[in-house]
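2 proteins. here.
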Amino acid sequence: MKRMLCSLWAIVLLSTWVYAQDLSKNFTEKEWQMGSLGGMLTVAHQPISMDTAVLLIAGSGPTDRDGNQAMMQNNSLRFLAEGWSNAGFTVFRFDKRGVGSSASVEVKEADIRFQDFVCDVVAWGNKLQTEGYTHLVLAGHSEGALVATMAAQQLKGVIGVISLSGAGRPASGVIRSQLLKQPKEVQDLAFPVLDSLVQGKQVSEVSPWLWSLFRPSVQPYLISWFALDPAVEVARLEVPVLVTQGDQDLQVMMEDAELLAQAHRVAVLAPITGMNHVLKQVNDDDVQDNWKSYTDPLRPIHPELLQRTLEFLKSLQTNKK
């Protein structure tokens, strides 16, 4: 099984805990700071297992532990973690480098590679295990699904992986599909840049229209990401996998979920009617309502997602060694 060399610096750093408890909830929240990285552990008051924790991984961009960005507050990952903990599971979720409680981490965009985020998850996973959580479930949203898959290949004690709206193709293919919905003028500018990055070659001159997507400083990261095929990576896993996907997702297609499920020998595919990319229930084919949910911090996650993931988590407890 493929292994990548990850920095061990975060594993050996001291962690500090700050306890906060809301008696109306069935869990205790613990702020966890590991060096410059920070996150939140939700510990169920009546845990189903004392040695199992779910490590929840956010998607692309400057996303925090709750699934939020500066201009996109939806609390999707917060609701998911709290739902799992209310049902008896301990869950850890963290702020990505340069975000929230991890804001003190110096992030130079040109130096970031996809594997850096995998290494962060490996470090958190190792730390969780030193705290007694010897059995881990890695759950990743969107880009985080691939991060979870890669980290699961390196961590001992992983008993399952959950893909939440994760792509089944290389990211370049997903971006290409999204660009096909844009005017031809945009495609003519974008596709040559995309093709060059897929070949591992950076492009120095980028149209201002494409700057947010292909600016030179982000190109090394994109090259490292484009080189990975989620279906190939999930096929390497020897643990149970749950693939969840909403039929109202505007960014990742149901076909992606099918590719992931087909690639793994015993993956469970859980298509969810009415769920969009940020795990919310939206009106069928109502694009305005769909996008509105991205900035709605009060709208709950789709109830079927919570149900299907809890069923999977409970099944792992029955079968774990």
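next one coming up
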Amino acid sequence: MNRPVVGIIGNFYLLNDEYPAHAGGTMNSAAIAEVSGCMPMLIPSDPSFVSVPELMDLCDGFLFTGGRPNVHPEEYGEPETEAHGAFDRARDTVALSLIRAATERGQPFLGICRGFQEVNVAMGGALYPEIRELPGRMNHRMPPDGTLDEKFELRHTVRFAPGGVFHRLMGAEEVMTNTLHGQGIKTAGDRVVIDGHAEDGTPEAIYLEDAPGFTLAVQWHPEYKAAEDPVSRNLFGAFGEACRAWSQSRTPRPAQVA
């Protein structure tokens, strides 16, 4: 039996400051292949090359990855400022439409870091441009120096709502996670349930209320050494199960772009 196909949203890069490329971290592909048990497929996130209906017919599930560019604040009705950083408007166009369409169709997706923020914005929510500047918040950004292990080390706890979706999935009310993000949820979008918070109150785990499919998203990076981390294994394992269920039961009805 063929493995379910998971489309991994790629990011745009200029290699050597001149060669345009779409790329994705191999740790995302490894988590999907080794822990979810699915086949990873990198998606060039540009509406010039792909369409949402085609992607939904081709893939069984989607992984909305992290990335250095941020969702443009125009997507949630705010002006651009220097604090918002770099942008990728082509990814905004593909990812936000794909999240809305997959939600309505019941097609599974998992959001990570920027992907977590995309889920919130796709549903009408807003973001803070810089979490560390808010009173009482810690610095959630990646350490600027050190090895990859040091940058992705577990740095704070995330506490889930008792009896909630993540509590049941993890089998624990509190877990340790890494943290490598600057932005965060300011206002939750329609149907967005904040199911987990960092110790400083920053939202870290969400899902969409009454959605027919798997719609989980996390602010941390569970793809790092996912096969070795029990929290990551639970998350990617459940996502893989949802993709297999979709693959086995999907019917050829056309995708609707929201």
